[in-house]
Amino acid sequence: MYAAERHQLLAQRARRDGRVDVGDVAAELGVAPETIRRDLGVLERQGVVRRVYGGAVAVERLDFEPEVAQRDQTNAAEKDAIARAALDLVPDRGSILLDAGTTTSRLATLLPADRELTVITNSIPVASILATRPGITLHILGGRVRGTTLAAVEAWTLRALEGLLVDVAFLGANGFSAEHGCTTPDMAESAVKAAVVAAARKRVLLADHSKYGTDQLSRFARLAEIDVLVTDSGIDAGAVAELEEAGPEVVLA
Asked: Which of 153, 176, 209, 215 is found 20 to 30 A from 226 (Cα to Cα)?
């Protein structure tokens, strides 16, 4: 297959699936991974894709945010493992803040009934999980609810967060990297996440490996502002070293 044919195939695959995995395509086409990386470099310079860890994503998908049900099915096993590992960071008593996200929702389902916890959240799914849970004192932050993520955002939410200081905040992200920090496509949600970071003594980011290098429109924290990153073993050792150098302790689930 000629280079131009590979470029066309890769562009079509990126637009169809949203992402191209270097290893999968190299095996499919019977070429070296380095060849596919060079091809993706050409497409990136043409503005067709943006290269990320392990492959590339279509440019038109960078600001696309799937709804909760779709995101919940993506990397489900990894998210389950991350939530179980994050449980070790939940205090025996005190206050925690659970950001909106499918992994933070999984952590909510695992919170034990024998701990005295005050839980604050801007997430409708998290609130519904914890509303009748024994041992939990639940506070839900008000605001406009985004239909895509079912998260409360904007001024009402931000004003409430200004007056809080919680023991541990658990945050989600659409992308993270040593260079660009923690990012998300929506600026209103990013502002809330930044306020969550400011309102916590300890900040824990829960993000599976597929989000590494997938930098989005709006940064809500640099990695130096995150105390612990809990991700899964799909991320390679080189990336872990780079992330830890940027600030947080990295826990592999």
From this structure: 153
